[in-house]
Amino acid sequence: MLDVVIMAAGLGTRMKSRMAKVLHAVGGRPLVAHVVRAAAALGADRLVTIVGHQAASVEAAVRHAAEGRGFSEIAFALQSEQLGTGHAVQQAAEHLAGETILVLSGDVPLLESATLRTLVDAHAMEGNAATLLSVRLADPTGYGRIVRSGSRDFERIVEHRDASEAERAIDEINAGIYAFDREKLVPALGRLSTGNEQGEYYLTDVLGLLVADGERVGVVLHVDAAELAGINTRRELAETEARLKLRTLGRLMDGGVTIVDPLNTYVDDTVEVGSDTIIHPGSMISGATVIGEGCEIGPNVQLVDARIADNVLVRAMSVVEKASIASGAMIGPFARIRPGTELGEDVHVGNFVEVKNSVLGAGAKANHLTYLGDAEVGPRSNIGAGTVTCNYDGKNKHRTTIGAEVYIGSDTMLVAPVTVGDGAKTGAGSVVTKDVPPNTLVVGVPARVIRKLERES
Asked: How far apart are CA 86 and CA 192, in angstroms?
């Protein structure tokens, strides 16, 4: 059995932020959520997160990230005082029951599950009391150094502040990722002391204690230092965002998506895109957005938590947020689709059209200069330029209902609540304040019925 411990209690003072470090986002997810996802792929039984600063918010982020990922138990341990990494894991000890304990930092978002699998497998195969990941850095300043014995076996880790000049010349550093035998880890945690420059309980001292007890500690040297890099500053956050973006775009391109200019396209790690979709430069696609096959997006489009079906065209400078668009629809340019909107198949929403909390039936069109708010538009209806659904009376929002195959003339004002029946028409410049019967023509201010219309067969 495998338990995972994530250290996520620190504020991260170098971020210069009031928000806990692990809550800062890259690729559309909090830093800690990336770590949870990487760990979950190992099939771990139990997830224990050590929280401190903004504990409730960190817990919420972890629970959201862990939901549906197969953990049999999700627990939290509070580190009310920040007394070091060893002290942090001491708080989690009572929750641990697995044979192997994987200890991770919550600020390493590029961490791959395959890397963790290599570590855990090496730990089991070698029968180690503990196994850690290391990397070599051209400039290891600030990191704990891996000190090896004459036989090149692991001897101890010395933190930079406590290292001698000779030890600071070592370029192999501790990545802060460990696998422990629980029966060896827990007693060693109780033996930690604060005899160092920081006056903290170092988790790394557990390794030295195990070696002194004659236990074997293994080291897995990893070749990709960037993957194991923790985030400590805003600059590092931006650098990691750029790396993760290219990783995400590479995954999409490998799956059959065309990214015209990867350096100038921004897609969150959370986004799904179908094959044969083309994404043009300047587009920003984030959150839980799902895009189907054969779509064309952009340039300079923003999609946030959008659901886009197959063969949809979203033209330049359009925004779609928390809305769904059915297959064959055409959006923009310069359109804004706001939350709560559902666009049916083959709907056309053109330039400078804003749609909010509305449903447009299949084949409906609003091609330019229109506001549709809190409205329902029936299939094959055509909304003329300059139309406004006047949905707000100063106190409350009201709905407008437009039936099927309705023609709304240019510059029509629809004063909600109001219903326009199937097959009706409004003349240009009409102000509709009363329900319009089906198959009638209304004109004027206020609009009145002029005549009955013949339905086309």
From this structure: 7
Q: Beta strand 172-181 with 100-105: parallel, antiparallel or unpaired?
A: antiparallel
User: By the 8 A CB rule, do 275 and 293 touch?
Assistant: yes
Q: What is the pLDDT of residue 457?
A: 52
Chain mean pLDDT for the chain: 95
2-228 placed in CATH 3.90.550.10: yes
Tokens at 140, concatenated: 């290891």
Task: Give the residue among 198, 217, 196, 197 at the shortest CA–CA distance from 206.
Answer: 217
Q: What pLDDT does 456 receive?
A: 62
Residue 270 near residue 53 (C-beta atoms within 8 A):
no
Active site members: 368
Long-range contacts: 392-397, Cβ < 8 Å, 24+? 397/373
Q: Where does the chain hold its CATH 2.160.10.10 domain(s)? A: 234-452
Spatial CB neighbours of 334, under 8 Å, sequence gap ≥ 6: 316, 317, 318, 351, 352
Q: Does the structure show a pLDDT above 80 at 417?
A: yes
SS3 of 111-163: the string is CCHHHHHHHHHHHHHHCCCEEEEEEECCCCCCCCEEEECCCCCEEEEECHHHC
Q: Cα dist. 58→32, 53, 62, 237 in Å?
A: 8, 8, 6, 18
CATH superfamily of domain region 234-452: Hexapeptide repeat proteins (2.160.10.10)
Separation of first and last alpha carbons in the chain: 71
Encode pLDDT of 212-253 as tens digits.
999 999 999 999 999 999 999 999 999 999 999 999 999 999
